[in-house]
Design goal:
about 325 residues, alpha/beta, Spore Coat Polysaccharide Biosynthesis Protein SpsA, Chain A, 2 domains, seven-stranded mixed beta sheet, two-stranded parallel sheet, 11 helices
Length: about 325
């Protein structure tokens, strides 16, 4: 069997409906020198049968954990099994374009050590959340990313990136202290940058992402979990690494901090559900502000109450 040039590592949990779309995208690749390793982080929906069906015609293998161990553990298992010289990290809800493998290989063809970031183009259904906040913020997210200086690009290390095998093993595994949702990628990107490797954005690798956060409620929960994970990152690397907002700065900052200090995850989710029901009846500017208030408050609240984060996400 010929060793593939690229290995695509796909961590997945509850991905039985998502994985067929990813496999369709991989089936259409213009470069055939690849393998995909799907790591099931506890098979809760018979995803293994979906992967098994794909194996009949695609170079796909599966590693199935008997229980949820977290995304970092899934990524580590996938990369340990990878055979390619270029290692691609790909979430199960991405829909790569036909030149996805070829473009990743091209970015590493000159032998210069680098970390390659393809930003994602979030695809949202027509929900009140998408109309009020999600679609606009997705565009701003990418615009802000491309404006960053090179030494700050690690903040956008994500589920659509690649490095060479040599670079991955020099930087080391993903940190399993990031057990629940969020920040395992940012941590690895920061460590990559600290090792002296340049990180580059690859616009040709922007990839459609059928995002899970399609309501204010889901987005608020993820922001809360991400806020808790941020505390793990800050404890590991130092709070000064992140910089960011000044607590309580301005009227908006005071509102965010007051809400975060008062409300735990349950109360924030209750407010998010009410918000989702009301968004289409609000003026657009007010709807956007309402969602932003809850999302930003949840991120701060998660940092204040990391004990509320369960380890089963």
């Amino acid at each position: 069997m010929t060793t593939p040039a690229a290995s695509i590592v796909v961590p997945s949990r509850g991905g039985a409906r998502r994985l067929p779309f990813l496999f369709d995208a991989l089936r259409a690749q213009t470069d055939s020198s690849w393998e995909a390793i799907v790591v099931l982080d506890g098979d809760i929906d018979n995803s293994a049968s979906v992967v098994e069906a794909a194996r009949r015609e695609l170079p796909v293998s599966v590693i199935a954990f008997p229980e949820n161990r977290g995304r970092s553990a899934a990524l580590n298992a996938g990369f340990a099994a990878a055979q390619g010289d270029v290692l691609i990290r790909c979430d199960d809800d991405l829909r790569p374009k036909p030149d996805y493998v070829a473009a990743n290989l091209a970015r590493h063809a000159d032998g210069v050590e680098r970390g390659v970031i393809g930003l994602v183009e979030n695809v949202l259904p027509e929900t009140p959340y998408a109309r009020a906040y999600g679609n606009t913020r997705d565009v701003l997210f990418r615009e802000e990313a491309y404006r960053l200086p090179s030494d700050q690009r690690w903040r956008y290390w994500c589920g659509n990136v690649s490095v060479t095998r040599e670079t991955y093993y020099r930087v080391g595994e993903y940190d399993t202290d990031f057990r629940a949702y969020g920040w395992e990628d940012v941590d690895w990107g920061y460590r990559l940058r600290q090792s002296g490797v340049e990180l580059v954005f690859a616009p040709e690798l922007e990839t459609p992402h059928h995002i899970a956060a399609v309501t204010t409620e889901i987005r608020v929960k993820r922001a809360f979990y991400s806020g808790a994970a941020k505390q793990t990152f800050s404890a590991k690397h130092g709070v000064e690494v992140l910089g960011g907002r000044t607590p309580g700065a301005g009227v908006w900052g005071k509102l965010i901090d007051r809400t975060a200090q008062r409300d735990g995850l349950g109360r924030l989710l209750e407010k998010a559900r009410r918000t989702d029901r009301a968004l289409d009846r609000m003026p657009r500017w007010l709807a956007e502000k309402r969602v932003a208030w809850l999302v930003e408050s949840a991120a701060v609240a998660g940092a204040l109450r990391p004990q509320e984060v369960a380890n089963d996400v």
